[in-house]
Amino acid sequence: MATLADILRKARRAVIRQGIADHDADDLVHEAFLKVEQYQRAHAVRSQEALLVRAAVNLSIDRQRHRGRMPMADGADLHEIADTAPDPARILEARARLQQVAADLAQLPERTRRILLKRRLENMSYAEIAASEEMTVAAVEKAVARATLHLMNGRMSS
C-alpha cells in the first residue's frame, strides 16, 4: 500500500507531465488534496490515490485553460512588461537638476572643478589628486569640501 508521500509524489509527477511548472505543481497537488479530503467526508472513495491524481490533473487543465483565456491574469509575467522608465515629470525634474548642477559647476574655479571631478567621477583618492595637482592632501580635501558645499547650496536655492 502506497504511503501518503508516495501518492502526493505521483500526483505531482502527473501534474508536471501536464506542463505545469515545478513551483506551481506543489500548489496544485495541495489544492487537489484538500478537495479530495473534503469530498471523502461526504462520499465513499475506492482509491484515494486515483482520485487525488485525477483531481490534480483536472486542476492543472483548468489552470492552463484559464491562462489561455487570460494570459495577463498571471501576476508572474507582469514584471516582464512593466515599464521601468521614469514618468515624464521625473524626467523633467532630473533634467532641471542636471542643468542646475552644470551651471553650479561652471561657477567653480577651473582647478576646483577639476579636483572635484577627479574625486567624484574618476574616483581618485585624495593622495592621487594631490600628486597630480601638486598640492597637499589637506588642500585637496578642502577644495572638495568647498566645491561640494557650493553645489549643495545651489541645489538648496533652486
Question: Secondary-structure blueprint of this entry?
Answer:
Elements: H1 4-17, H2 22-42, H3 48-69, H4 78-81, H5 88-107, H6 110-120, H7 126-133, H8 137-157
Helix pairs in contact: 1-2, 1-3, 2-3, 5-8, 6-8, 7-8
Explain what the structure shows.
- By secondary structure, the chain is an all-alpha fold.
- It has 8 helices and no strands.
- It has helices at residues 4-17, 22-42, 48-69, 78-81, 88-107, 110-120, 126-133, 137-157.
- The chain is rod-shaped and about 90 Å long.
- The termini are far apart.
N-to-C SSE string, H for helix and E for strand? HHHHHHHH
Q: What would you call the structural class?
A: mainly alpha
- What's the main sheet like? none
Weakly predicted, low-confidence segments = none
Short synopsis of the structure:
The chain has eight helices and no strands. The chain is an all-alpha fold and 158 residues long.
List keywords for this structure.
single chain, 158 residues, 0% strand
